[in-house]
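Table S2 (text version). Query chain:
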Amino acid sequence: MPRRAEIQTRGLDADPIYGSKLVTQVINRVMTRGKKSTAEHIVYSALDKVGEKTGKPPVEVLEQAVKTVTPVLEVRSRRVGGANYQVPVEVPQRRARTLAVRWLVTFARDRREKHMDDKLANEILDALNQQGGAYKRKDDLYRMAQANKAFAHYRW
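Corresponding structure-token output:
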């Protein structure tokens, strides 16, 4: 990390089929070992399944699911006077969206369905209905922040 200069954030290109930067972000998160075409195939087939099940445009459903899973507060560890406190802080928008996409993909991988596109599609639908692992993670994080509200004055 540079000491003085601001870090330049690299922009994402919109994906070729839906023209959405969020879909690109999900593809990049699903990708393992640099196999982008495989990740694209997984994400696009998952979005097709989501579109079939809901009857709505799949990108709108994905955006709604990500919005449902996006955290508002998180706790960060802060050392004050020899003790560590879990201090609740608001999550910046960029980090919140990144966390939401990460949780969706991570909890989709842990599901019991056979293929990754089924797992991802069902995790998106669960997030939309305020269920599933990703939504539970968001809820747990929010509860933890509320429980540690007493240490909010240590915010920096």
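Notes on Table S2: The longest strand covers residues 73-80. The CA atoms of residues 65 and 127 lie 5 Å apart.
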